[in-house]
């Protein structure tokens, strides 16, 4: 299996969003768009409850690391969250499962990683690129780095503990570094 990378082209980011809605559902489009903007692991993203938002911030404890994540929600993401809540005012989870019979008659549950992975795989095959649920987090990190060239900021956003891990994670290669040296003349 190929290693999943960040989606480096912004037009492709938007195309993935469009295809997720057309081929799968509006909810999957929202998973992609909110996921890119919050840069969380998919397990943390899917476990978000509406009660985790306070004063324009998302406050959660990350499942993998146990670290507290406090994320200021940008206007686009807030609009998406408001839209989801308006469409499903009785939902507990931001990305609540509501289509199958068990979800209708049972306690509230979030979407599964498997359902998200399945939708992303469908779009991945159509575009002939390799994306999965981790692509959202990597994409956010990559684009923040390209905008700021500040690896320390990306490390803080992703809550990583080393620069080398972050550079490898967002897909910055020696080839990229070489290109930066040749293209930037002072």
Automatic annotation (TrEMBL):
GO biological process, one term: DNA recombination
Keyword annotations: DNA integration, DNA recombination
Chain segments annotated as transmembrane: none
Occurrences of domain Tyr recombinase (ranges): 6-182
Organism superkingdom: Bacteria
GO MF entry, a single one: DNA binding
Protein name: Site-specific recombinase, phage integrase family
